[in-house]
UniProtKB/TrEMBL annotation:
This is BA75_03784T0. Residues 317-340 are annotated as: Disordered. One of its GO terms (cellular component) is U4 snRNP. GO terms for molecular function: RNA binding. It holds the Pfam family Prp31_C. SMART domains: NOSIC (SM00931). The keyword RNA-binding applies. It comes from Komagataella pastoris. It is found in: Nucleus. Residues 211-317 form the Nop domain. GO terms for biological process: spliceosomal tri-snRNP complex assembly.
Length: 448
């Protein structure tokens, strides 16, 4: 064998080795425990053999569906089905988490075909349904409008068909048939999860109506089953209302009650207040469910739901804007003053005195005299100073009406006080013989 033959044989051996390594690596990607979260970051769709096999919740969902089919035809056993309800609530949360993961996978890889679709449809389930129908043939989307109308309203169908036709005219990156099959399989998994979730949810609704009819009528079957799964009806009735909004909250996310339709239909600014109102009514409904026997009507829950709805509508109502009223026509006539002798007499008490009038007058061409008061301020005297120099200031005087006056009670007290002093002086005179003798000597008539 020559050198050329050796090189050819070595090259063929290397090709066989590389093909074996590629096959082993591909099998390793498929069978080496590829997790569902790794599926989102996987760029090579050809290396994925089965998308549905990556789901960890799928076996649990199948077992739950089988058990539900067995329990539906039997009478309700509250002891057995109470624990099973909590399991159903956990599975519902897990199903929703995996639906979001598969939606993210489909959205990342289908972006190369139709990038505008993720902005037009934000719902994960509807997005996967549209991807399954449209596929990578965007030019034929107008022929698929009837099929799209089963899942979307008319206006969205029209927008999607127009956007798809415009996108088909552009030179976009297309996917291979095998890659599109992987994406469609992920869409099928999402639709299967949606059907199973609906079946589990219907079972929960039918059973929670038996365990807590009033709580179910108030907040809905989904939220009611989630609250009951944590504490049970008896434990829920003993829970303080301030702790209800935090039930089910994880890593800063709101609790189960936050997702109630009564709270979600309120504006975000009023949701905290709505949570407090609904939480108080949930406790009352749970207490009624504990005490009521064989009453599945939920009349109290419906009644309180209507009350909460009316109260929240009243809270959100904007303030009433009444019509602007015109100002009244102003009345120009002078206001009526009360007259009479009593009022005239009262006014005279506050009239300006003659001395003050003289002080306010000045003689033309003559310097005004002034004085300084106790506060150091200079006060002009006017004509009052001229009259004082002539000795006529007393002639000015003041009107008797505006003189200082005392009340009758003050005058009576002063009179009594003066009479008491006079009696005291007489008593001192009679008790002192020397003073009494001097008084008698003064009273005797002098001899001629």
């Amino acid at each position: 064998m020559g050198l050329a033959d050796d090189l050819v044989s070595d090259f063929s051996d290397d090709e066989e080795l590389n093909s074996e390594l590629n096959a082993e690596s591909k099998e390793g990607l498929i069978n080496s425990g590829l997790s569902l979260h790794d599926l989102v970051n996987r760029q090579d769709l050809l290396a994925i053999d089965s998308v549905s096999g990556l789901s960890k919740v799928k076996p649990e969902v199948e077992k739950t569906i089988q058990k539900i089919s067995q329990l539906i035809g039997k009478p309700v056993d509250k002891v057995v089905e109470r624990d099973f309800l909590s399991e159903c609530n956990e599975i519902l949360d897990k199903i929703m988490e995996e639906i979001l993961i598969f939606h993210t996978f489909v959205r990342l890889h289908y972006h190369a075909v139709f990038p505008e679709l993720e902005a037009l449809i934000t719902d994960p389930v509807q997005y996967c349904q549209v991807v399954k129908i449209v596929g990578y043939t965007l030019s034929k989307s107008s022929k698929l409008e009837e099929e799209l109308k089963q899942y979307l309203p008319q206006d969205k169908v029209l927008v999607i068909s127009m956007s798809a036709s415009l996108q088909a005219q552009k030179n976009t990156q297309s996917l291979q048939e095998k890659e599109m099959q992987v994406i469609e399989e992920a869409c099928d998994v999402v639709q299967t999860f949606v059907k199973n979730r609906q079946a589990i949810l219907e079972y929960v609704i039918s059973r929670v109506q038996v365990f807590a009819p009033n709580v179910t009528a108030l907040v809905g079957p989904t939220v009611a089953s989630q609250l009951i799964a944590i504490h049970g009806v008896l434990g829920l009735s003993r829970t303080p209302s301030c702790n209800i909004p935090s039930l089910g909250s994880k890593s800063g996310n709101p609790g189960y009650l936050y997702h109630c339709d009564l709270v979600q239909q309120v504006y975000p600014d009023f949701r905290k207040q709505a949570l407090r109102i609904v939480a108080g009514k949930v406790i009352l409904a749970a207490r009624v469910d504990v005490t009521a026997d064989e009453d599945y009507s939920g009349s109290f829950g419906l009644k309180w739901r209507n009350e909460v709805t009316e109260k929240l509508e009243k809270i959100q109502a904007p303030p009433e804007n009444g019509p602007t009223k015109a100002l009244p026509i102003p009345i120009d006539q002078p206001s009526k003053k009360r007259g009479g002798r009593r009022i005239r007499k009262l006014k005279k008490q506050f009239e300006m005195s003659e001395l003050r009038k003289a002080q306010n007058k000045m003689e033309f061409g003559t310097q005004e005299e002034s004085t300084t008061d106790a506060f150091g301020e200079e006060i002009g005297l006017g004509l009052a100073a001229k009259n004082s120099q002539l000795g006529k200031i007393r002639s000015i005087g003041s009107v008797g009406v505006n003189q200082a006056k005392m009340s009758k009670s003050m005058l009576a007290r002063l009179k009594n006080k003066q009479g008491g002093l006079h009696n005291l002086s007489e008593e001192l005179v009679f008790n002192n013989p020397e003073i009494l003798e001097q008084k008698r000597s003064l009273e005797k008539p002098q001899g001629k």
